Amino acid sequence: MTAAEAARQVARHPIQSLGRSTLSAVRMVGGVGVFAVRGTIAALTPPWFVSQLLRQFVAIGFFSLPVVGLTAIFTGSALALNIYTGGGRFNAEQVMPQIVALGITRELGPVLAALMLAGRVSAAIAAEIGAMRATEQIDAMRTLSTDPFRYLVGPRLLAGVLMLPLLTAVADTIGVAGGWLVATRVLDFSSAVYIRNTVDFLQGWDILSGLIKAAVFGFIVALMGCYHGYNAKGGARGVGRATTHAVVSSAILIFASDYLLTTFFTHAAK
Amino acid sequence: MTEATPKLAWKGVTKRFEDRTVLDALDLSVAPGKSLVIIGGSGQGKSVTIKTAMGLMRPDAGSITLDGECIVGLSEGKRRKMFSRIGVLFQGAALFDSLTIWENVAFRLINADGVPRKEAKERAIEALEQVRLAPAVADRFPSELSGGMQKRAGLARAVVAQPEILFFDEPTTGLDPITAAAINELISNQVRRLGSTAVSITHDLASAQTIGDEIAMLHNGKIIWRGPAAELNTTDNPYVRQFVEGRAEGPISHAV
Question: Which residues touch B47 (CB under 8 Å, ≥6 apart)?
Answer without folding.
Answer: B169, B201
